[in-house]
Design brief:
Blueprint (H helix, E strand, L loop, with lengths): L1 E7 L9 H7 L2 E7 L7 H6 L2 E4 L14 H15 L2 E5 L1 H9 L4 E3 L5 E5 L2 E2 L1 H4 L14 E5 L1 E3 L6 E5 L7 E4 L3 E4 L10 H7 L1 H6 L4 H31 L1
Parallel strand pairs: 1-2, 1-3, 3-4, 4-12
Antiparallel strand pairs: 5-9, 6-8, 7-10, 10-11, 11-12
Helix pairs in contact: 3-4
Length: 236
């Protein structure tokens, strides 16, 4: 069986809709919680797919969270070898940093909530992304940091608040600043786990909950196609 290694940062930000897609594609999944579990370097390099998930910390906070350096080094080493790697939110920022780009607090402030993605000209040509750009489909955004586009990366999608929402590095490295993986049934854990951040950002949790109930079903349908086609293109 193919092997996927997942690096998580908070337990409730998990694979979401990507988990059943991986199971259908014949992957076994090993999840390591950064800062809690040892992240095995050899396995991280050798596995068929490495997925780095989100979390409420900054890539530039290595002095506070030393494991971030290992993650960046591992992602850089995998990408250099052509290892298939997917970064989501913090994982996308780690990938950007691993490729030499700057990661920093965004001037537009927190982007928390649902909005549509706008494809770039390159994004228009990627068939697996088409469901995310379809009318009536929004994605969940939940970040305050952003990044410069890494040298050699292909810019795939933007939002109205932040330009860099998705990029590809070759065919093997893909990054989403947004959260295409979220499922509506899981989001109450986010509302509880990120209560302090939501309060500081002045987000109305009841309104976000209602919006999530409205928007999540369309995203889940779109993401099922996204993940299936993305995996098939890379692993057959």
């Amino acid at each position: 069986m193919r092997r996927a290694m997942v690096i998580g940062h908070v337990a409730f930000e998990d694979l979401g809709s990507l988990a059943p897609a991986l199971a259908t594609a014949g992957f076994t999944i090993r999840t390591c919680q950064a800062g809690v579990d040892a992240i095995p370097w050899d396995e991280g390099l050798a596995c068929d797919l490495l997925v780095v998930l989100g979390g409420p910390i900054g890539v530039y906070e290595e002095a506070v969270y030393p494991f971030l350096k290992l993650e960046k080094d591992l992602v850089a080493a995998r990408l250099a070898r052509g290892g298939v790697t997917l970064g989501i939110c913090l994982g996308a920022q780690i990938m950007a940093a691993a490729l030499g780009a700057r990661v920093y607090p965004g001037a537009a402030g927190k982007e928390i909530g649902w909005s549509a993605l706008q494809p770039t000209p390159a994004g228009h040509t990627v068939s697996c992304l088409a469901p995310l750009f379809a009318p009536g489909v929004s994605v969940l955004h939940w970040h305050g940091d952003t990044f410069d586009l890494p040298a050699g990366a292909v810019h795939l999608a933007s939002s109205t608040q932040y330009a860099h929402q998705a990029f590809a590095h070759g065919d093997h490295g893909w990054a989403f600043q947004c959260h295409p993986e979220v499922r509506g049934a899981d989001l109450e854990r986010w509302f509880i786990g990120h209560a302090c951040e939501l309060g500081q950002a002045g987000v109305d949790i009841a309104a976000l909950r209602a919006e999530s109930q409205q928007q999540a079903p369309a995203l889940e349908r779109a993401a099922a196609t996204l993940w299936s086609e993305w995996l098939a293109a890379r692993f057959g």
